[in-house]
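Interim report to the steering committee. The following record documents the input for MIR domain-containing protein (267 residues).
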Amino acid sequence: MADPAEGGGSEQDDVSFLRTDDMVCLSCIAPLTKDANATERVCLAAEGFGNRMCFLESIASRDVPPDISVSVFVLEQALSVRALQEMVGSSNEESAAQSGHRTLLYGHAILLRHYHGNMYLSCLSTSSSNDKLAFDVGLQETAQGESCWWTIHPASKQRSEGEKVRVGDDLILVSVSSERYLHIGSGASVIASFQQTLWTVVPMSSGAVRQKTLGYVYGGDVVRLFHGHMDECLAIPEAGSENEFSCVMYETGAVCSHARSLWRLEH
């Protein structure tokens, strides 16, 4: 019998349900550090370069736009727990590579790859929290072992194990390796703890739609902007120059291969 979660599906599945290759943000409500009685909406985030620890990025400010790029994760794989155990137990962990776009089911284990840093959301072996039973959460370069796999569970009694995960559902993520919940720590930290946090999956881009429309650009894509049919591109001044942070101009020549002429589209 064919697996109902395998790729194919109808266009409605592309819109209503989460599938592998979708780009998402994980959002939750967290208490304000300055006022314990107030809350704000935040997103799970990571820099991906240098510091690999995950943190919470506020998206509630009306004056300062959030840097959503640090909060985008790709739903790279989804497996049943049994299939994951068989894969980890085998010598070839690459055997679980999938084709198509698999619809996520509650109870399945998922692999989340940080889009900006190209590393995997993982339960680390370190513990820097005041909660001595908790572990740090950060990014890991490879997807080997169970530390970067998380099982997905419904937060609402209206959903049950085995059902498709709908866009906008509140859900609970559990580390396969430590059997702890993905939880908000003190300040802006993120930990794997025995305490629960309800996360809302906010879709940024559908992997199925991206594959069907290769001629389009999307939020998060990096582009270089040229002026008409000329070889001049939009750039900022060189680092250390007098107008480094206050000037944008068109330039030609070697700048067309430099990072200062690259621009990222917001989501």
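Residues 6-13, 208-213 have pLDDT under 50 and may be disordered. The committee is asked to note this result when reviewing the revised timeline.
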